[in-house]
Amino acid sequence: MNRFPDEPTREAEAVMREFGIESLSSSQVSRAAKLLDDELAAWRNRPLGEVKYLILDTRYEKMRHGGIVRDGEEDRKMIRGIIFPTNVLSAVGIGPDERRRVLGVSVALSEAEVHWRAFLESLQARGLRGVEYIVSDDHAGLRAARRAVFGGATWQRCQFHLARNAVHHAPNLAIRKRIGAELREIWNVASLAKAETALAELVADYRDTAPALAAWLEENVPEGLAVFTLPKHHRRRMRTSNPMERSVQQELKRRTVKVRVFPNEAALERPVSAVLVEIDDKWAADTKAYIKWECQDA
User: Fold this and answer.
1) Among 11, 131, 243, 293, which residue carries the largest CB count within 10 Å?
2) What are the angstrom distances between the C-alpha of 145 and each of 114, 120, 159, 177, 200?
3) Residue 264 has pLDDT above 90, yes or no
4) What gap in Å lies between CA 159 and CA 216, rounded to an integer?
5) Directed axis angle between helix 211-220 and helix 192-206, to 10°?
6) Torsion sign across C-alpha atoms 139, 248, 169, 81
7) Distance CA 225, CA 195 (A)
């Protein structure tokens, strides 16, 4: 079975070679790809269960559509007036066993609500339940999809990305240099009430000197304070999506950067799924809890 109908066999072989599979004939490439695809599809569709905390993220990859490279990370190509970046949507959850698990992955042409919603609904269809808390960046489309599928869950906007966004809204170099530290002071206080008070004071400080920044802080930073509703011992791990970014996204980047441009969706989905299986197996074998549920002191 040819998994690469739109590209020459040599491109499929090149992709597999980058992941350590070499010296295969075209028929062997097709058979190996089919066997691997079946196993990875079974993993992507495996039943899920209870997950209390959910981390969502996306990264971008280069993939060919209709013979033209569209890049989701740099210099995106526009065709027929519509931009189609290639997004790899992924989800990590922490369940009753206190371990992180990779729950799923989906290759989508954009971060539009329709794609995020389809991905989240697929997790539900596989049995995902019990989600109380979600952490992610404020990706386009994810907000609406999250509300539609997990409307009862508390949402935490990633504090790291919030700080980075604040830098972009700072009007001068002096403020850009200090705004991150000022936000960290807010996030490191002991309670939600103290964080809200500190934020109000920061907004007031910038009201006259940087009114646009003050308005942005007032509107956006409260979305990064939901973590204060969690037990104290859970907050450090669940206030950003960085643990997922370091463990998952950087490993995906390390492995996929060798390919540069994927010939089609199947060629991208295959290695990404394989990497996530490795990460999931490693986490499952870890004897150390990622979140200890008995640590419930506020």
Assistant:
1) 131
2) 7, 8, 20, 34, 30
3) no
4) 14
5) 160
6) negative
7) 8
